[in-house]
Amino acid sequence: MKNINESPEMEKIDCLILGHYEMGTSEIHSALKAGGVTSGSYRDFNLGFVTLEGNNYSLTELYNSILNKNSVEDKIVRNSNTFNAAISYLGTYLNKRNTSFDYITSVDLEKERLEKILTEKEVLSIALLTTLYVTPTPIIEIVDFIRSLNDKVKIFIGGPYISTMCRTHDDDYIAYVAEHVLKGDYYINSSQGERAMVNLIEAIKNNDPIDDIENVFYIEDGKLIKNKMKAEQNTLNENMVDWSLFKSDNKEYVNIRTAISCPFTCAFCGFPENAGKYQTVPPEMVIEELHQLVKFNPEIKSIYFIDDTFNVPKKRFKELLRLMIKSNFDFKWHSYYRCQFADEESIELMKESGCEGVFLGIESGSDTILGNMNKGSKVRQYEKGIKLLKRAGITTFGAFITGFPGENESTIKETIDFIENSGLDFFRTQMWFCEHITPIWRQREKYDIKGEGFTWSHSTMDSNTASNYVEEVFCNIKNVTWLPQHDFDFENVWRLVHNGISIEEIKRVAKLFNKDIKKKILNPSNFEMAKENYQEIESIISNKILMPKDV
Fold it and tell me: Among residues 325, 338, 334, 388, which one has the least CA distance to residue 357?
C-alpha cells in the first residue's frame, strides 16, 4: 500500500469518473461457463465468439488480432473508441455544481494514468460506471486495483448493473454482493443518479450524515442500509454537455442523447418506468451542442444518437434534421429508429443530414406477438419503413425477441419469413428476458408466467425452448446477416466503415465468422475455427487496411 498523505500541495479532485473496463472474451467465457453451458446467458453468449488455436475471440478481437499481427494500431477497434455519454453528461453536471472532476475513458488502457492520479492527487471519490458490464468481474478487478493504491478514496458504484441487480434480487442477495463481492462504499440505484452523487460528495466533504440522501444504499456494521427511493428528474435542457471540458481527447466517435426515457410502454421493457418522465431537448439546443462538439473535437467521424426514440416526435425530428443540414456538418450519424413512423420526407432528410444507419427495434415478425408486446405497430408498417430506408441507402439492423408470452412455432415461423424477405442488412434475435418490473409481468396470470431472467416459462413456451429457437434462427436465416451482440453489435459496423471496410465486406466477414459458430452449435465438440475461414477474413481486412495506399 502506498502512503497517501493529505497535503496542501496535492491537487484535489472531488470525483474521478471511471469509464469502461474491457474484459476479454476468454475471461467472460470462464465467468459464464461457471454458471453452466445450458444456461440462457451462456447460450446467448455462445453465439458471439469463435475459438482459434485454443483462444476465444469475439469478431472485434479477431479483427484486432489481425491488425496487431501486422502492427497497425491506429485502426484498432474498442468500445472506448466511442466517448462515453455517461462521462460527458456526469462531468458537465458535476462541473456546473462546483464539483471538481477528472475522468478515465478506458480503465484497462489508462491504468498507468489512473495509478498516477490515485497516488499523486487527493481524490475524494470515484464514480464507477457499469453501462456495459454483464458480470461483476470487471467491477471487482477495478475496485481491487483502486484499493491497492489508495484506501481512503470513497468508491461509488451505480449504473445499469446496479439497477438490474436491485430489480431482480432480494435484499439478502444485494447485501451479500455489495459487502463481499463488489466491495464499494456507496451504491446508487437510479436511472440518473447525478443528484445523489453530488449530495454524497458534499456529505463526505462536510462529514455530514448520508442517511437522507435519496437512491443510495450501503453496508453499515454488516447490515444493508437502503435510503429512501425517489426518481430523479434532472432536466436535460439545463444540463447540456459542455464539450469544452472534454476537448483534449481527439474524439472520433461520440454518443449523444437529446432525450430522456421513452414515450412508449412496450410490455417487455421496464425502462420508461425506471427512467421517469419522457423529456426532449429543443432542436436549437441540440444544434448548439453539436456546433460546440465540432469546435472542440474537429476529428469527429460519427455520432451515435442514443435516444430510445430519436425520430419521435416526428415534427421535432424533421426540424432537427433540417437544422443539421443547414449547419453542413461533416460527421455521419446513426441512431435508434421507430420504423413504423418512417415516411419519405423524413428519410430523405436523414440521408441528406448524414445518416449512415439505424437500429430498428422490430422485435417480431408476427402481428400477434407485436400486439402482445404493445408495440403499437404492424408488420406491414415495418415492411414499408425498411423499403424506404433501403431505397435511401441507409443501412438497417433489426433487433428481435424470441419467446415472448404467446410465442409459439407458428409465430416464430412468421418472424423467420419476415426476416428473410425484409431487405434488412443485419439482424439479431435474443431470448426474451423476464423482468418483474416490466408491464407484461402484471399480466403473468393471463399468460401463466413463472420464473425470471433467463429462466422462465409461460403457457406457450419455456426458456430452454426459446434458446433452441434462437439457435435455429441463427443457423437458418440466409438473406440477412446476423451480427453478434458480444463485443461487436451495431456500433462496431461504423468503426469498420470509417476504417475503410464497406458494408458488403463487413457482411462477408460476419458470415464467415458465423459459419464457425454454426458449426459448434451443430457439433459442440467441433469448435475450432476453420483455417480457410480465418484466412479469408484476414484477406478481406488486409486488402482494405493493411495494403500500402499506393499499391
Answer: 334
- Provide the pairing of β-strand 355-363 with 332-337: parallel
Same domain, yes or no, for 188 and 326?
A: no
Q: Is 523 exposed, middle or buried (0-12, 13-18, 19+ CB in 10 A)?
A: exposed
483 vs 378: CA distance, rounded Å: 24
For residues 346 and 341, what is the distance between their CA atoms, to the nearest angstrom? 9
Are 320 and 220 in the same domain? Answer: no
- Cβ-count burial of 407 within 10 angstroms (0-12 exposed, 13-18 middle, 19+ buried)? buried
Residue 411 within a domain = yes
Q: Which residues pair with 401 in a beta bridge?
A: 430
User: Mind listing the pLDDT tens digit of every residue in the chain (551 residues)?
Assistant: 344 444 456 789 999 999 988 888 998 898 888 889 999 999 999 999 999 999 999 999 999 999 998 888 888 898 888 898 899 999 999 999 999 999 999 998 899 999 999 999 999 999 998 887 878 889 999 999 999 999 999 999 998 889 888 888 899 999 999 999 999 999 999 878 899 999 999 999 999 999 999 999 999 999 999 999 887 777 888 889 999 999 877 789 999 999 988 899 999 998 877 777 888 999 999 999 999 999 999 999 999 999 999 999 999 999 999 999 999 999 999 999 999 999 999 999 999 999 999 999 999 999 999 999 999 999 999 999 999 999 999 999 999 999 999 999 999 999 999 999 999 999 999 999 998 889 999 999 999 999 998 999 999 999 999 999 999 999 999 999 999 999 888 999 999 999 999 999 999 999 999 999 999 999 988 889 999 999 999 999 988 886 644 44
CA 431 – CA 401 distance, rounded (Å) = 6
172 domain-assigned: yes
**188 shares a domain with 124:** yes
Question: What is d(CA 106, CA 83) in angstroms, rounded to the nearest whole number?
Answer: 10
Q: What angle do CA 199, 273, 368 make, to 5 degrees?
A: 160
Answer whether residue 34 is part of any domain.
no
Strands 355-363 and 395-402 come out as parallel
Cell numbers standing for residue 384: 414499408
Structurally, how many domains does the chain consist of? 2
CB–CB of 181/133 below 8 Å?
no
